[in-house]
Structure formats: structure tokens, C-alpha cells
Design brief:
Blueprint lengths: L1 H21 L8 H25 L2 H4 L9 H10 L4 H6 L12 H28 L9 H4 L5 H18 L3 H19 L11
Length: 199
């Protein structure tokens, strides 16, 4: 798929830099470390997914965005780790989000969020090597779509490719949005947070 290949190429450097910055397994030392990590994800995903929901008429676009939301997984995991729902909602959310003002921007942002579920399969296995965390007791977010992860990624790619084929202007805008989304993750996971350690 030409669009996904372009997005991968355009974001490769930022993707690798973010992985190195996060060094994800160092947050698997204790349950508290892991909970702080999920809080950081929650405070970025919640406002970002809310913005995405408003950016596009998803039914008209032919993509089931509600089925792809990850925030409910994070709420579920945090509850298993002892965080009350109201506490989760009180965490300071990320305010500096990527621009998501239309279909092209949304595709670029979703490329990052949907792509993260692929890496989540590896992270899920690493998590279980460090902590007694499974899908049922706090590992839902990283488990992603489980056995459906790769098929769902392919469905996203086919849909995005079809959109880009209909409108070639989508590709450069989606690439810019994907880069901006990686930049947002890098900033948010670097700065201090009232409830999370500096990452």
C-alpha cells in the first residue's frame, strides 16, 4: 500500500527516536511504575481521540472510529491497577495536540495510533515477563486487538489507501499529521507530569 509506505518512510526517524526515548520496559519494574505509564498514555489518548471524533464524519468516511478507540482500554486497565475512574478523569490532559481538522489529518494521526497496536503486541509479551499483568488484570491497552491486530491494521491501511486514491492531496497532509503526532508523543512523554514521573 503506497500511502502506508510513504507514511512509514516519512516518520521512521521520529518513530525510532520515540521508542528510544520511552525505553518502555523500564516502566515495568513495579505496578506503580506501570500505572504511571498508563496514566501518561490516558492523558494523551483521551483528548486526542476526542479531537479525532469531532474531526470527521466517520460514518460518511466509511471507517468505524468508535471501534478503534483505545481510551476505554486504558480506563479498564487503570481500574484494575487501583485507580478510581474519577481519579483518572482528574489527571491533567495534554493540551498541545496535533492539528486534526479533516480526513487527511485524521488519517495521519490514526496511522500512529493504529500502528502502535502492532508494537503493543511485543510490549504485551515483555510486560508479562516483568509483572503478573495479563489481558484480564491490567494489560488490555498493550494487548490491543489481540488476534485481530494485524487484520485490523490491514483494514485500516486498505481504507486509508482508498481515501488517498480518491484524493491524492491526502498523502502529504497525512504525512505531516503523522509526523506531528509523533512529535506530540515525544513532548508529552518527556515533560514532567503531576501524576507521572518524567519519562
Amino acid at each position: 500500500m503506497a500511502l502506508l509506505t510513504t507514511l512509514k518512510t516519512k516518520t521512521a526517524e521520529k518513530h525510532l527516536a520515540l521508542e528510544a526515548q520511552m525505553d518502555i520496559t523500564r516502566h515495568f519494574k513495579t505496578r506503580d511504575d506501570y500505572r504511571h505509564l498508563l496514566e501518561r498514555f490516558y492523558t494523551l489518548y483521551a483528548p486526542l481521540e476526542a479531537r479525532l471524533a469531532e474531526a470527521v464524519d466517520w460514518q460518511q468516511a466509511g471507517f468505524d472510529f468508535d471501534d478503534r478507540r483505545k481510551t476505554p482500554w486504558l480506563v479498564e486497565d487503570l481500574a484494575h491497577l487501583g485507580a478510581e475512574p474519577q481519579e483518572g478523569l482528574d489527571l491533567a490532559e495534554c493540551q498541545t495536540l496535533p492539528q486534526v481538522s479533516g480526513l487527511a489529518n485524521a488519517i495521519g494521526c490514526l496511522y500512529v495510533l493504529e500502528g502502535s497496536t502492532l508494537g503493543g503486541q511485543v510490549i504485551s509479551r515483555l510486560l508479562q515477563q516483568h509483572l503478573p499483568i495479563t489481558l484480564e488484570n491490567g494489560g488490555r491497552f498493550f494487548a490491543g486487538y489481540g488476534a485481530k491486530t494485524l487484520p485490523n491494521w490491514r483494514l485500516f491501511g486498505e481504507w486509508a489507501e482508498a481515501c488517498s486514491t480518491r484524493d491524492p492531496a491526502i498523502e502529504p497532509l497525512a504525512a505531516a499529521a503523522a509526523q506531528s503526532t509523533f512529535d506530540t508523543f515525544a513532548r508529552w512523554f518527556h515533560q514532567p507530569h503531576s501524576s507521572c514521573p518524567t519519562l
